[in-house]
Design brief:
globular, 5 helices, mainly alpha, 2 strands
Length: 105
Amino acid sequence: MSMVEFCLGMALSRRAPQSAGELATEVSAWFDRPVRARALKGPLDAMLGRGWIAPDAETYTLSEAGTAALTPFTHALVRMLDGGRRLLDLAVFMSLIKEFERSGS
C-alpha cells in the first residue's frame, strides 16, 4: 500500500462516499500542498483492482477488504507515534484526530 493509497483509505474510512475531487481536497489538506483529482486516478484504480474500494456513480466507498488492508498500517502509524511504548489507544487516538479536525487545529 502506497502512502497515497493509505491516505485515500483513511479519508474514505472517515467519510464515504466521496468523489475524486473531495478526496483530493482532503489529501491536499493533509499534505499541505495541492493534489489534483486526476493525480489520484492511478492510486484509485489500483485500489479498485485490489477490491479495497468500491465505485458508486463517480464516488468511492471503502470496502471490507479495504478496511482489512488499512488496519495494520493504521496500527503501525499509532505505534510509530507512540514510540513503541503501547501507551496510545487507537480508538482514543482516532477520537483525538477527529476532535482536532472539528476544531480546525
